Amino acid sequence: MDYFNAFWVGGLICAIVQILMEKTKMMPGRIMVLLVVTGAVLSAFGLYEPFQEYAGAGASVPLLGFGNVLMKGVKEALGEQGFIGLFAGGLKAGAVGTSAALIFGYLASLIFKPKMKK
Known about the structure:
By secondary structure, this protein is mainly alpha-helical. The protein has one domain (2-112). 83% of the residues lie in helices and 0% in strands. The protein has helices at residues 2-23, 28-44, 48-55, 57-60, 63-81, 85-112.
């Protein structure tokens, strides 16, 4: 049942994003920011953890999960460092994922020789 819940929740998130892309004039970058902010807001109100327990990877893998990671990092850093944690927490919490994306993207560009679109 865990796989089924992850599949349908992740699919629903993707379907909503696809509808936003096709039916609105929002650019993909703005939709991505909307997802990250939504994840952060759900985390701030304590709603993301129960959602993630129910949906598993269907909730943690999309950009909603990245917003949750950033908010968790900010909450922890605020408790440890005070006001400066507001700026450092999200960077520290999201550093591994961001670094991995950059490194693997670079490695993929070495292997597959990307070209500019015409």
